[in-house]
Queue: 3 jobs
Job 1
Amino acid sequence: MPQLLTEARRWFEEALLASLEESGVAPVSPTQVHLFAVLDERGTTVSELARRMGVTRQTAHQAVHGLVAAGLLSRVPDPASGRPRLIRRTAEGARTHQEAGDILERVENELALRAALETPWGPPPVLRG
């Protein structure tokens, strides 16, 4: 089952990336897609993004750098502290984020996967030898 879920995630990522590219969005990596998914609206520091993604700060920084270069994210001063920088979506990044959500919804509807995963399964069984 874990392998099937991993393959399903990969399939979803590939469908999303290909669909975004087809719609004219700058190419993004799976890591950048994951970063976009954990970024909140008010802005997030690179350290917090790394923690949420479960990756190193360097990996998160590289993903941010690529998305800033693509015009999808921007760095702004943190109003609570002048030193850390918050990462936020640009207007184009917000549009891309919305488009990605729409694409994923269509893919989910196509497969009816969400309905299957949201079905109550009851408590996990205890299997004896």
Job 2
Amino acid sequence: MTAAAPPRERGPAIPDPAPAPRGARRGSARRPGQLGWLFSVPALIIGLLFTVGPLIIIVMFSFMSRPAQGGGVIYDFTLDPYVSFLFQTDFVGNTTFDPRYLTVFGDSLWQALVTTIVCLVLSFPLALWMATRTEKLQNFLVLIVTIPFWTNLLVRTYAWMLILNDNGIINNASKALGFGKLEMLYTPFASQLGLIYTFLPFMVLPIYSALAGFDFRLAEAAYDLGAKKMTVLRRVILPIATPGIISGVLLVFMPAFGSYVQPVLLGGGKVLLIGNLIASQFGDARNWPFGAALSVIILIMLMIALMAIALYSRKSGRKVEIAL
């Protein structure tokens, strides 16, 4: 006969979970400090009214007709605002290709492209140097970079007008050195300089944010293994900084493309960019549908850029955030 197995020791009894309250659904339990979706309704309403609402109005206006006199729109659907971007119809009714607005777009693209390239060339070494400093010094350098945001853009632009005018610091130094007076204010150069100054922090901060968490001991290890400086920069550091570079390029290129203040104040109105053209359509020309159509075209370009960045992020596996 086999001996009976000894009885197993039982652990402490586990109490049954408390019954869920009547009417509660599965997955509806909130974590401590979590609020319900009803608390977000006011913010959603404000966002829809002041963000999505104006965009919808602009898109609707771009398909409306222009009144015979004065500003505003007539609620008759038409594609004339978009057709007039590329074609012009004379009094007889003949339609011909008109490249004037394409030229404005080309000038805007060129200034935005130059601004982006110069900001990238200046920002990458600065952001890399900032990321290799001590934590205390990094915080101080970030503070220095963000100081321009504390002052209104108009004030900073007027300061550049004082620097670049005939009696400014640069011209006084040029005269003292015997080079004579330099014509800088109210020129394309002044407008370009104002754009670079304005959007430089928008390139520095994303690149620095991408490099700040990088362990630079990996770069030292690459040096120890015999890699050259350019190889380390290209194979180790640049891939880490790529998301920040892409974010900075978009944050600089699109605002610079539609910029208004710098071409007007520093360029003296001699530099006609897309931002000035849109403002003139809503102001002097009182052609609201065409101004809205130009705004929609810029919006479409921005959406294409965002879609391209999302596609790159998905294929490369690198998370790209459009944020400072």
Job 3
Amino acid sequence: MIGALYANLKRPPRTAAEWTADAVRAAAILLVLVSLFVLPATDTAVLSMALPAVMLSRMLGLRAGLDLLTCVTVIVAAGSNVLDLYRSWTGWDLVVHAACTGVLAAVALVVLDDSGVVPRTGRRRTPIVVATTAGLALSAVWEMVEWFGYRFITDSIFVTYDDTIGDMVAGGLGALVVGILASRVRLTRGDRAAL
């Protein structure tokens, strides 16, 4: 598995979308490095949380468009927190939760499928159920992280019951949409190294 992840990571980009995804990935790394010197530590920590997703999408060999979408979405999600857009733009929180949970559910679906956790049944319902379940689980974990941050790090994190439930519903819907798409479209490149 590690060898396949490394093979996908070192594969040179071939299409414009792959080059663009790699450029966005490099910008994300640079952004985190710069933030170390110009932003508070909490903002740097938030931005750095995007890095595993932008790297994993490349290492898994996601299709170029999905790879790019994943990179942009997680960077926008982290940046929206740093720029305080969740408080200033009504409804932005729900849009980002749906989109970000959706792309992360796609990543989870590929990981679970490749690692054999999810049996290859060939049924079109399987990606729908697995992606939605993964998205709801990721939403729950994220809300726990928000609560922990609010409770033990800073009270500037916005946490209410309605916000938590709304975020989880939006995330679950985003994951459901990805599951439906994944039941019809391949999420990975055809030439990737299989895990």
